[in-house]
Amino acid sequence: MMFNRRNVKSEIDAVTNGHEKSKNFLTQDEISQLLTAAKKGRHGIRDYLCLLMMYRHGLRVSELISLKLTDLNLSQSRLWVNRLKNGLSVEQPIAGDELRAIKRYLAKRNDTLPWLFISERNQPLTRQSINYIIKRSAKLCSISPVYPHMLRHSCGYYLANKGYDLRLIQDYLGHRDPKHTVNYTRIVGARFESLW
Predict the structure, then answer these.
(1) DSSP state of 75
(2) Alpha helices of 5-148 — where are they, by DSSP H?
(3) Which pTM was predicted?
(4) Which of 3, 74, 155, 188 is most buried as measured by Cβ atoms within 10 A of its Cβ?
(5) Tens-place pLDDT, residues 130-144
(6) How many angstroms from the chain centroid is the CA of residue 149?
(7) Is 175 a catalytic residue?
(8) Which Pfam families match (predicted)?
């Protein structure tokens, strides 16, 4: 006898509209608080830069920890973002405050390791390390829950709120399919500003 094993949860998830999901990004004020909190601690310069780059470039954790020093072009203020998960890799500008933070971090290093972000054991940072940095920083500034992918979403929502078009956001985040980008432009508050 066969039993009908319907997965009710997946059916509900499939029906759930994007507008009904909980907020999965941080506001500008929350990002500022998180970045300030990341500066506190033994590795504050590195931790701050990790979170700043994740947010500014919409990096996944795996993309952040795989960054190499050769991906940086400090003389032209550029970063090569090697997108994973079949994303489109692009070169992105590095803003002035971020460039200063990179130089400050690199000035403290005295190794010849290829990775941009390393642990005190001279190994590349791990996913667990990044999760810990984010969790600790969020706890320090009383913002929770915060998980790593929220920084990528926060980048998308920031760009959409600034009024950038879907195609630009899609390319910046490395999405091959616009359906992954459209959520940012669909639910941003800025598009409702002039209604009343």
Answers:
(1) T
(2) 8-15, 28-38, 44-57, 61-65, 96-107, 127-140
(3) 0.85
(4) 155
(5) 999 999 999 999 998
(6) 6
(7) yes
(8) Phage_integrase (PF00589)
